[in-house]
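[audit] Reproducing an earlier prediction to check determinism. Same input, same settings, fresh worker. If the tokens differ from the archived copy the diff job will pick it up downstream; this log only records the rerun itself.
[audit] input (180 residues):
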Amino acid sequence: MANLTGDDFGGNVVLSRAGGATANLVGVTAAKTYTTQNITYVVGGKLFYKAAVTTQTAPTTDVVTTAAFKPIVANQGCTYVWTLDASGNFGLAQGPIPVSPTTTGTQTNLDASGNFTAPPQFPFLPDTLTAVSYFVVKAGSTYVTTGGFIPGVSDNWTGATGLTAAQVDVMALPAFPQVS
């Protein structure tokens, strides 16, 4: 998987920030995504450039599976990875919702304090996509919405009560997401 190491820079890496510390790459509302940063990135060893985007509609399907995102409900969390392809298209891939071996019924992976009981994982990304940023999204015990959180469909990334989203810009995806 080229995104874990960048294959010594002959693979997929990002050479400029997507905007994490300044919150420039976000789902501002349920319907919009933007970045005020210009992004230089590599796909398969070839250099590409993406100019700032201010009006792109947030994706409603997973860039890898093409399926609709799986909703997360109270006491669940997972990762979402923003990607760019060689054509400059932004995409979003959802990681699996880890299940807790101590829970029955609706599987949860957050405890009452909002800490992961099973660590989140990244989604598989093909070599045609470069990860530029990821979010760890947690729907805490106070999160209530009909149907759960679905990127591009429901709620703001951080605007709903009980919902938190921590963004991390990356050069290449680490082995595991940072969760604290």
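[audit] rerun output stored. Observation attached for the diff report: Residues 2-169 form one domain.
[audit] end
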